[in-house]
Design brief:
- It is a single chain.
- This protein is α+β, with helices and mostly antiparallel strands.
- It has three domains: about 45 residues, Uridine Diphospho-n-acetylenolpyruvylglucosamine Reductase, domain 2; about 120 residues, 2-Layer Sandwich (Uridine Diphospho-n-acetylenolpyruvylglucosamine Reductase, domain 3), CATH 3.30.465.10; about 100 residues, 2-Layer Sandwich (Enolase-like, domain 1), CATH 3.30.390.
- The protein has eleven helices and 14 strands.
- The strands form four sheets. A five-stranded antiparallel β-sheet has the order 4-5-10-6-7. Strands 11-12-13-14 form a four-stranded antiparallel β-sheet, sandwiched between helices.
- The longest helix has 26 residues.
- About 45% of the residues are buried.
Length: about 290
């Protein structure tokens, strides 16, 4: 299949990209890695007049660590993020999730921000952003605004990004020393979108659990630290609270069973990870 005709603009700066988006609005689409956009163009699901290529904008190809977050620019690939020194200690949840994102070949081109922009409810990186309560940095001619993940992710392939805006970066909060995390997913094949994915974060006061593949966006809840039957009951209640539907990949009942089983296993793994971090002389948890 071939895409519809469009004008292609390779930009050299954020300002140039914003000028094109300001002029064309809903008739323009931003291209970074192209792993989602190109497929949608080829299937004629999108027919923009202009495609704005930001992949070679130097300002967007950076990863910056601040006091409380890692900011990843819009042109940074998933593979480059995976190679980031200190990723496993600063963003261990992201480090655990990235191997499940597509395949080596697609991660070499696909971008972290592109995955967030695509907003597939079964995608791993939007799930991590929701679990970590991260932020999205948006740029337009009107200035810069920063949105919480919960406000940005609007539904299936839908975000709060306006037609004249572009994602400039996403911010993943750093994991506090001594906290634990875990990530689990089940797909038909490795590299496919998850039937159900679970991310869990654990500290002394709470466990935060985020579920992907359950509705039109990732769903996150906070629980007290639980174990045994209490944890099983909490996962059962969570499974029944989610708006599952039958589809060609799995039934609603099967997905609820996965939330019960994978949810409990992932929470227990996050708590064990935290326990190891607090054990004197303990090494890093195995992946």
């Amino acid at each position: 299949m071939k895409p519809p005709r469009f004008d292609y603009v390779r930009t050299a700066s954020v300002e140039e990209a914003i000028d094109v988006l300001t002029e064309h609005g809903e008739d323009a689409r931003v291209l970074a890695g192209g792993q989602s956009l190109v497929a949608m163009l080829n299937m004629r699901l999108l027919a923009p007049e202009v495609v704005v290529d930001i992949s070679r904008v130097p300002e967007l190809a950076t990863i910056t660590r601040t006091e409380d977050a890692v900011e990843i620019g819009a042109a940074v690939t998933q593979a480059a993020t995976q190679r980031l020194e200190g990723l496993a200690s600063h963003l261990p949840l992201v480090a655990r999730a990235l191997p499940f994102v597509g395949h080596v070949q697609t991660r070499a081109r696909g971008t972290v921000c592109g995955s967030i922009a695509h907003a597939d409810p079964s995608s791993e990186l939007p799930l991590c952003l929701a679990a970590l309560e991260g932020e999205v940095v948006l740029r337009s001619a009107r200035g810069t605004r920063v949105m919480a993940a919960a406000d940005f992710q609007g539904g299936v392939l839908t975000t709060a990004c306006a037609p004249d805006e572009m994602i400039a970066a996403v911010r993943f909060p750093l994991q506090a020393p001594g906290d634990g995390c875990a990530f689990t997913e089940l797909g038909i094949r490795h590299g496919d979108f998850a039937i159900v994915a679970v991310a869990a974060l654990a500290n002394a006061a709470r466990v935060r659990v985020a579920i992907g593949g359950c509705s039109d966006r990732p769903h996150a809840v906070e629980l007290p630290p639980l174990a045994g039957d209490a944890l099983a009951e909490a996962m059962n209640a969570l499974a029944w609270s989610l708006p599952f539907d039958d589809d060609r990949h799995a039934s609603a009942r099967y997905r609820r069973d996965l939330v019960r089983i994978l949810g409990r296993q992932t929470v227990e793994a996050a708590i064990r990870c935290r326990s190891r971090a607090h054990t004197p002389g303990a090494g890093a948890p195995r992946r």
